[in-house]
Amino acid sequence: MLKLLTRSFLLTSLLAIPAMAQEASNTPTLAEQLAEKASGFAKRAPAERRATFAKGIADVRASGVEKSAKQVGDQAVDGTLQGWKGDSVTLSKLWEQGPVVLMWYRGGWCPYCNIQLRAMQQSLDELENAGARLVVLTPELPEKAKQTAEASGISIVALHDKDLALAKKYGIVFQLPDAIAPMYQERLPQYNGNDALELPLSATYVIDSSGKITYAFLDADYKKRAEPAEVIEAVKAAVK
C-alpha cells in the first residue's frame, strides 16, 4: 500500500493522553491562527504595502479563477506525482480505496501555508480515522518541500506538482497581478525551479471513491484556508 505520510513522533505513555487532549481543546482554530498572523502583518507593514497586497487579492478574485476552477460535483482530475522520497503516487489509485483530501500550498516561503500545514498535521489522526488520506501538493521543488516540512516540524510528505501541471487542470492557477509580481521575481524561481510568475489558490478538495469532488475550498485571499474540522466533516459525508 502506498504511504504518503510518515510519523515523526510516537505516544510514549498513556499517561500523556489526558494532557494532550487538554492541550488540543485549547488550540485555536486555523481561522483564528491565520487571523492573528494577518493582524500582525497589518500592524507592522506600511500602509502602501498593505494596499498593494489588498489590490493583489482583489485582482486575483476579479480574474474569476474561483469560479472557473473545478467545483463540487465535477469529476476530479487524475495525476501521478512524486514526493521528495521518490515515491510515485497515482491519485485515482488512492481515491478508489476511499476519500482523498487534496490540498495545495504555495510554498515554504508563505507563513500562512506553514500555519495551515501545522494545523493539518495536528488534525491528521482525526482525518485518517474518518476514512480519508491527505494528499498535499506544492509547486516548490522536492528539496524545498522537504525543508518546509522540517522547518514546520511536520511529518506530512508533499508531492511535487511540477510547473503546476495538475493545478492547471483543476483550474486553480493564476498569474501574479502586476501589483505584486515584482515581489516574487526572485523568490519563485528559487523555490519552483522555473521563471513562471504564477501560483495556485490554496485550494482544498475532498474526492470520494468514485472520483467526484464533494467539497471544494477556493478563495482568492491567501490568508484564508479550509478549516480542518470542516474538511473532516466533509470526509465523513463522503463515506456515507
Structural summary, described in words:
It is a single chain. With 240 residues, this protein is α+β, with helices and mostly antiparallel strands. It has one domain: Glutaredoxin, CATH 3.40.30.10. The chain is 42% helix and 15% strand. It is built from eleven helices and nine strands. The strands form two sheets. It has a seven-stranded mixed β-sheet. Strands 6-7 form a two-stranded antiparallel ribbon. The longest helix is centred in the first third of the chain and has 16 residues, at 47-62. It is globular, with a radius of gyration of 18 Å.
Features:
peroxidase; 7-stranded mixed β-sheet; Glutaredoxin; two-stranded antiparallel sheet; alpha+beta; disulfide bond; globular; thioredoxin-dependent peroxiredoxin; 42% helix; redox-active center; disordered N terminus; 240 residues; thioredoxin peroxidase activity
Please outline what is shown here.
The chain has 240 residues and is of the alpha+beta class.
Indicate the overall shape: globular
Mean pLDDT across the residues is 90
Main β-sheet: number of strands, strand sense, barrel status?
Answer: 7 strands, mixed
Q: What percent of residues adopt helix (DSSP H or I)?
A: 40-55%
Span between N and C termini? 23 Å
Instruction: Kindly give the count of domains.
Output: 1
The string of secondary-structure elements, in order, is HHHHEEHEHHEHEHEHEEEH
CATH class annotation:
Alpha Beta
SS class:
alpha+beta
Examine the secondary-structure arrangement and name the CATH architecture.
3-Layer(aba) Sandwich
GO molecular function, one term: thioredoxin peroxidase activity
EC number: 1.11.1.24
Catalytic activity: a hydroperoxide + [thioredoxin]-dithiol = an alcohol + [thioredoxin]-disulfide + H2O
Pfam family, one: AhpC-TSA
